[in-house]
Amino acid sequence: MSGHSKWANIKRKKGANDAIRGALTTKIGREITIAVKMGGSDPTGNMRLKLALTKAKANNIPKDNINRAIQKGLGAADGANYEEITYEGYGPGGAALMIDILTDNRNRTAADIRHIFSKYGGNLGETGCVGWMFKQKAVFVVEKEIFDDEDALMEIVMDAGAEDFNADDEVFEITAAPEDFDAIENALAEKGIETASAEITQVPDTTVQLSGKDSESMQKLLDALDENDDVQNVYGNYELE
């Protein structure tokens, strides 16, 4: 789940209920399988697989699950033909949402997503209705309890091509162009700096502050999307109080 604050969403994932955790394991496994089918099992030459494995590690997915997903991608055991779709729309309070879908049944998924939006005060829109509000970026999160030298970290990542660097009470957030993902990841690894999150995601140009009922409804909408196996990623321009 990706909103304005990546760290807020990481903490949300860590505290997610069992249904969401189970769905997350399924989604990451499916992403690994598709990545292997499309680009092979070597993450060095397969960025999609590399990102999926990074996500699996960050979410403590068991190695057995990862290996099964890789083997499934290498073999012919899974005959399902998955289709990738992006839905766009508005949630409570007018917040923009983009949803990455991986499905073997477009009609079922469309009905499910439309129902979730309607139930929690949102509306699906046409392709492109909110996409213009987002830009694809590489985003890294480093916890201060792991590495707290702000000046040193800023120098490392800026030299490697980072575009932006922000700090809050708990973490540093580093933003870069997608093509600079490897350079920054390698620069951090060379210094032994572990990341809490490293991903290529959609970052909003501006954000919408949600409070009260709008915030509660958005939280419920996000939980419902998380629990849907066909939803791979959700990007939004919301900030929840």
Structural account:
With 241 residues, the chain is an alpha+beta fold. 44% of the residues lie in helices and 24% in strands. It has 8 helices and 10 strands. The strands form 3 sheets. It has a 4-stranded antiparallel beta sheet. It has a 4-stranded antiparallel beta sheet with strand order 5-6-4-7, sandwiched between helices. It is globular, with a radius of gyration of 18 Å.
In short:
Helix content is about 45%, strand content about 25%. The protein has about 240 residues and is of the alpha+beta class.
- Spatial gap, N to C terminus: 16 Å
Report the portion of residues in β strands.
Answer: 15-25%
Q: Average pLDDT across residues?
A: 89
Strand order of the largest sheet: 3-1-2-9
Report the order of strands and helices: HHHHEEHEEHEEHEEHEE
Number of separate strands: 10
The percent range for helix content is: 40-55%
* Uncertain residue segments: none
Radius of gyration: 18 Å
Overall outline? globular
Structural class of the secondary elements? alpha+beta
Instruction: Please report the number of helical segments.
Output: 8
Major sheet: size, sense and barrel closure?
4 strands, antiparallel
Features:
241 residues, alpha+beta, 4-stranded antiparallel beta sheet, 24% strand, globular
